[in-house]
Amino acid sequence: MRNIALGVSSSTGDEFFRSMVGYLSGTLQVDYAFIAELADENHEMAKTIAVCKGGEIIENFEYLLAHTPCGNVVRKNLCCYPVDVQQQFPQDRLLSEMGIEGYAGTPLFDSAGNVIGLMVVMSRRPLNNPELARSIVQIFAVRASAELERSRIEKTLRERTIELQRVNEQLRREIAERTRFELETIRAARLASLGELAAGIAHEINNPINGIINYAQILINKTDRQSSENEIAGRIMKEGDRIACIVKSLLSFARERKGEKVPVSIQEVLSDSLALTEAHLRKSGINLRVSGFDGLPEVIANPQQIQQVFLNVINNARYALIQKYPDMHGNKVLEISGEEIRESGCAYVRVIFYDRGTGMPADILDKVMDPFFTTKPRGIGTGLGLSISHGIISDHRGKLMIESAEGEYTKVIIDLPAAGREE
Ligand SMILES: Nc1ncnc2c1ncn2[C@@H]1O[C@H](COP(=O)(O)OP(=O)(O)OP(=O)(O)O)[C@@H](O)[C@H]1O
Ligand SMILES: [Mg+2]
Q: In total, how many domains does the chain have?
């Protein structure tokens, strides 16, 4: 008995129960020994945790307790039917299928005294020593009860831990979302004030620059075509035009956009944008992959403005890809994909522009949408593309987000509210 107790006590959980039923059936020389837990609150079903048949562990099963000796056991009694148990429980099909004659079972209690399971031995012959069966079953039951309660608590703890991890993960996501929202609000406010400043400066520059261009034109007209004065006047005019052009985009960034918004197919806006850029991309050796646009809902938008955004984002990707791969390369690919997403109960159409070009260092990521922020050489970029794009997308109650890793990739993600899908 001491050996049995020692052997069993070294293990826990399923292994504990399996060794216990093995010892039980061996010690009492019975055909079956099992430990079961109550499967429902009303104590109508039991589910075995470990079953030993003829010295072997077999698969677990569930059974109904009504009209069985086990039904009596769970009503808090140790029950022993040394012979003819089938005659006493004629409706118990399991007993007759297994050909059981002798039965002894005892309930398993938790520390509050509630029945949580049962432990049973059964034999195809009458029990040869019912007294021994009673005592051994009772002794083992104390240990089995404790282990059953322990493993139940462990299971509850495990479930709680998983639940806590889930809640934790959700909180983390919500905090990240809130931080993103706050940053977005700060950026929108900063862009708005920069916009006002830019508009003011642009207005101030607009008149004098036109004056400069006009005076340069007068000089050109008045001087000899071959003279150096004529050439200098020509240069003044060219540079002046460049300033006028920048002022124009600056005004377009600052101006309130009142363009009419109608339901449009993003797929069509994208193909119009690609019609303008595809040849250029191909010439630069860039492979274009477009996917996911079939069957997307329409968006409420001003197609010209969205096209302006797409063109800028595509040009940025083209530039980054050429910078990274001046020659042909398998990674010189621009992937544009569309999908429908749901956020806070609203449907959005999401367009992702993904390029594996130069990427951006982390410290410039939150500056790239500022007006005039550019890393491109003078004359190539004005740094207004993304700030104008951001303004346009916000104006559409959408979002423009950028993910990037330096030297690896850039993803520009644009979400636009789907038409007629708000709840
Ligand atoms: N796909 C990209 N890959 C790497 N860097 C990018 C990408 N898109 C934008 N950037 C970075 O963001 C900066 C700002 O982009 P933005 O479009 O606002 O201006 P720009 O392209 O420099 O000039 P503009 O668009 O006015 O001609 C770029 O100069 C570049 O450093
Ligand atoms: Mg640009």
A: 2
User: For atom 25 of ligand 1, which residue has the closest CA?
Assistant: 385
Q: Which ligand is nearest to the CA of 360?
A: 1
Helices (H), 296-402: 303-324, 362-365, 385-395
Closest ligand 1 atom, CA of 315? 21
Contacts of residue 103, Cβ cutoff 8 Å, sequence gap at least 6: 69, 79, 80, 81, 85, 95, 120, 121, 122, 123, 127
pLDDT of 422 over the 50 cut? no
Q: Kindly report, residue by residue over 20-48, the tens digit of the pLDDT.
A: 999 999 999 999 999 999 988 889 999 99
**Residues paired with residue 59 on neighbouring β-strands, in sequence order:** none
Pick the most confident of 4-13, 53-62, 377-386: 53-62
> Measured from the CB, is residue 302 less than 6 Å from ligand 1?
no
pLDDT per position as a tens digit, 248-305:
777 766 665 667 889 999 999 999 999 889 988 999 999 999 999 999 999 999 998 9
Choose the final residue of a domain: 118, 150, 182. 150
Ligand 1 binding pocket mutation candidate from 187, 248, 374, 403 (most atoms within 8 A of CB): 374
378, 342 in Cβ contact below 8 A? no
**Alpha carbon separation from 319 to 9, 68, 201 (Å, rounded):** 71, 80, 29
Query: Is 140 part of a structural domain of the chain?
Result: yes
Amino acid at 249: S
Q: Is the whole-model pTM more than 0.70? A: no
Ligand 1 site, residue 148, Cβ cutoff 6 A: no
Domain holding 373, by residue range, is 259-423
Q: How far apart are the first and last CA of the chain?
A: 70
